[in-house]
Every structure is written in C-alpha cells, then in structure tokens.
Amino acid sequence: MIKKLLGLLTWIVAFNTSALELKTIDEIHSAYKNNKITAQQLTQGYIKRINQLNPQFNAVINIEPTAVTQAKKIDELSAQGLWAGPLHGIPVLLKDNIETTGSLPTTAGSLALKNNITNNDAFVVKQLRNAGAIILGKTNLSEWANFRSSYSSSGWSAVGGQTHNAHDTTRNPCGSSSGSAVAIALNFAPVALGTETDGSITCPASVNGVYAIKPSMGQVSRSGVVPLSSSQDSVGPMAHSLKDARLVLSVLQGRDPLDTSTHSFELQVLPKITKSSLVIGALPSDKFTVETQRLYKKQLSALKQAGHTVVNINISDDLATLFFDEYYILLYDFNKEINQYLANTSDQVKVKSLSALIDFNKQNKAAEMPHFGQDILIQANAIDLTQTDKYQKTKHRYRTLATAAITNLYKNNNVDVVIAPTTSPAWKTDLVNGDNFKGSSSSLSAIAGTTHITLPVGQVSGLPVGLSIIANKNQPQGAYQHAQIIDAVFISPIKKPE
C-alpha cells in the first residue's frame, strides 16, 4: 500500500511539473493528442496553482464552479476522436466585467455589483465556448475599469483587493485588466481576456511580460461587458505567445447584432512571410524612464542587426485638444451607458443608476473608498447628456485627429510598421498617492480604433517592458505579420515567474 501511495505521489508531482510546463495552445493540444494529460487534469492543475499562489497576488476573484465539468465533457469528446474547435480544452480566464452564465456574478470590482448574476454569456464567451474553450474563472481588475478616481491604484477593487505584479509583489500590475495579465504571467491559464478603453490591455500586459492584442474597433463585440465607453471599449486576448493571442482573437471576432459597431471582417490565416526586411518607424521614447530609453535603443540596434531599416519618426499633427476631448467623450459615454447597464440589472442588484452608485460608495466608504475617492464618477454624473451636438462634434474631432496622426506616421515616413515602448516598468504600488505612470503608447490606437499589439521583448532591472506595434488604419493583417517578424528578433528574454 505504501509503495502504491508513493507511486501516486510521484505521479502527482510529475503531473504538476509537466502541467506547469504547458503554456501555449500548441503544447497543450499536443499533450492531449499524445495522451500525456487530460483536460480535466490540466484544469485541476491550474485550479490547484491558483489556490496556492493567488493569495499572494490577488489576480483571480473567482474560479468557475463548472470548470472541471466542462473539462470532463471535452475529455468525452476526445475519447470519441472528436475535436471541439480551435480552443479545444483550453482553459480561459475572464476579466470580471465580462458576463457568464451560471452562478458567478459580474462585479466590475464593485461591491455594488456583488450580486450581479446575469446568467448570460457575453458574445465573446459564447465564441470561446463554441471554439471548445473551458471557462476557468474571473480575474481581478481596477474597479469600474479604472474610471472612478484620478488618484486610484491600478489593480485595486473593493471585491478583489490590490492585485500585485507577477514579477515583484511590491510593484503595480497596471490596469485595468491587471488580474488577467498577472494570471498569464503566473501561468494560471494559457489564455485570459481583458478589456481596454485606453491602455487597459496593453499596459498590464507590458509590465507583467505577456503578449496581448487590443483589436480594431468593430472586430470584437462588447455586448455582455460592463461598459465604460462604446467609443473606445474593446475586448482582447492575453497569452504566452503572439500566435496564441492571434488565434484567440480570430475566435472572438464576429458580427453581433447586439453591438452595432461590429462588422464581418475576418482575421485570416497569416500568409507566408514574403518581406523579411522591414522599414520600421520608431517613435521617440523621451517620455519614458531613462532606463526604458536605453532598452529601446538596444532593441532598435537589434532590429538593425537583424537586417531591418529603422527610421526615427515623430508625430507631426497637433494633438493639443486630443486628450481633453477624449476625457469628455469618456465621461459622456460612461454617464449614458453605465446608467443603462445598471437600470437593466436583476432585482438582486439594488444600485440602479450612477447617482445611486455614488451614494452607495459614500454609504460604504470603509469598504469602497479606503484609499481613494470617486471624483471621476462625480464628474461623469454631472455631464449634460442633452448636449448631443457638442458630443458628436467632439467625437468627430478627436477621432479624426487620432486617425490622421497614425495615418500620417505611415504615409509621411513611408514605413511598414510603427513601434514604441508600450510603457515604462511597473512602479511601486502606492495606495496613498495612486499610480505613477511614466509614458504610454496606447492613446492614438485607442481613440482611432486601430489595432495595438504589445510584445514582451525586454526588461529593465528584471521588470518587463513591452514593445508596441501600432497598426495603421484598416491594416490589422499587416500589423500581425510585422509583429511576428519583430518578435522573432527577440528570443524569449522574459523569464516568467514560477
């Protein structure tokens, strides 16, 4: 009996080790096909890892109760020689502003939504299930997608607490999709979904050292996602490889009648690379930390040594009004759209309006506002929604300006691709003073609605710094191909924490 127990223990240890080595979709699918692991074993392995490590990082809010049952169904298909789809048996974590069927609430990190059990799959979740994915659980986030306080600490929510960076728990994970990025970096799952309005996918991916894609506007539906701004909101994947992120995006995309922004664009299989040498437009890095600037110079040198032409470029358009306009649009959209969302929640949710939310936070100040307030919510609530002409003119102006700025970077400099540091390394988490961002490359893509890809191809003092691929308008296909070429120059420099 003792020998049998020792043998079982040895198998369990071996399983845990091999499971943790499986990170990409190809690796997992190969293990399935070669009978090295089952979907149930893999799912249970991730759950065990989350239970062991998550208390140190606060990346995951809830594990989906049906995850193992989902995995068993996948194994039943496998036993019949059937394949559920391109994400067959791939566990996926979801940011907790994405709705799912079942017993888990969708909280956006707020205690006001702690009972928000919608029993509805967001469009992207339906797409994942149809592709054979296993919904593993919900990840922590900056409360209300970081649109509550000007002095917030990214990754903090009243529901999930403070998420910690995967590489250094004293440092910030960036937000608002903080839990999703940290979860991938810690290998809590091979894939996670985040959402972005401006930087909320790319920044956390950058400072935690994972691949991520903020897709083009209209490529992926936002229905079933707690809104911030329909003008800029997007849903995108984080993964251990560019190939995986791109595959997941191809699953997520599609026309959805509940989101009129979506269209029938389809991400095609990448063609064989015919252009080995790129003309790369490098945006300046002077707004990033000095060490980030030094890293960027080394990256540009490596690209040159790999045979690419690097051209220093700069934004020629006057962006003086851009960020003021953006803030107005976000305030207007949030007022309108969060009121609509809250009004249509179930009877279990007592907060039915933005005004009621503000009052709820005041009444629950000890739990909801122990570190920072809600000045952004108050500003949004004061926006006059009857000023539709002002809104439409502002929206046209800011989107036209951002789109022209990107288009001119490509046209005026005759480059194949535009790159920049995604952001500087993670700062020390500061619950008293809030975030300490040093540079960002997210806004033009976020406002123009173009694709933004971040690659984990460098470190500063052991902390990850992403490299951004900023796509031209209506050119996502080229962006993925160029990102693939650039990624190949840098061979896994990020050491993932174990």
UniProtKB/TrEMBL annotation:
InterPro entries: Amidase_dom (IPR023631), AS_sf (IPR036928). Keywords: Signal. The keyword Transcription regulation does not apply. Pfam families: Amidase. Residues 42-475 form the Amidase domain. Residues 1-19 form the signal peptide. It comes from the Bacteria. The keyword Ribonucleoprotein does not apply. PANTHER family: AMIDASE, OS04G0183300 PROTEIN. This is Amidase family protein. It comes from Pseudoalteromonas marina.
